[in-house]
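FORM 7B: Structural annotation worksheet

SECTION A. Query
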Amino acid sequence: MTQPTTIRRVPGPRPRLPEPLRTALTLAATGVPVLPLRQGKVPFGNCPACAGNACGGRPNMKHAGPCRCPGVCHAWAAATTDPAVLTSPAWTAAWRRAVTVAYHPGGAGLTVVDLDNPAAIAWARETLPATRAVPTTRGEHWIYRGAMGSSNAVRPGVDIKSTMAYARYLGPGTGAMTALSDTVRVLAVKEPSPVRPAPHAVPVRVGNGQCPHRTPAYLERGIAMAEQRITEARSTVHTTVYRTFLAVLSTHGRCGCLTDAHVTRLFTAAQTKGESARHCTDAWTNARTKLGM
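SECTION B. Predicted structure
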């Protein structure tokens, strides 16, 4: 008696992964949280269960934490490094409709300075520390190590994308990535309402003693760079003065480095640009207040 023939099914070729998904999986493997963007380079909209913030999310698709919806629902909060989520049926359907890949910079410990035009790029080259640059459609993304708060329009043509934001992935870029500096951080600081100082108030040293972590040459270079930044300001001089004071104080304000001579140099640079002595004192006081000094 002959044995029945066993028919073995030869599996067919696996469906080819969409190109955006393959890129996303490569990024996710390096610890970068990713999400798909649909036509128009915008995130996928909320699913019916999350519409109208029924899930507890925030307006404008800014969810309070990582998205727990099985679909791609909450923009930056949906970004993930989990390959099981990225290749789930709901996400795969989104990837097939996606036109590009985005990522959550803050989730990867990164900050993207989005420079939207040639003028913004020229400003960055004069003002910000050099770092990895990625060409975009109209400008460049400058990427720094370290996360901070995101903020749009910190100056003409410049946005900051880090925590609670997403950025398009446009390639690895060129150049060495440098650490996030105070020069970048202060761009997102909103100037507080003026705090009027007492009559005849003058700036004095904030700390006491010698600086424990910087050299005199470092301080001198920092003051010179601050003077230059104020002197070269082409617009929003008052805001530039405040942010420069804030950057100097955040680095040297608590360790005793700053003397009246240093502060006078900063005030002189600001007054040369048209700031009054009172405006200088207000900006210095506001910066100290912001830093809790």
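SECTION C. Observations
Strands lie at 34-37, 100-103, 110-115, 132-135, 140-145, 151-155, 158-161, 167-168. The longest strand covers residues 110-115.

SECTION D. Sign-off
Analyst initials: ____
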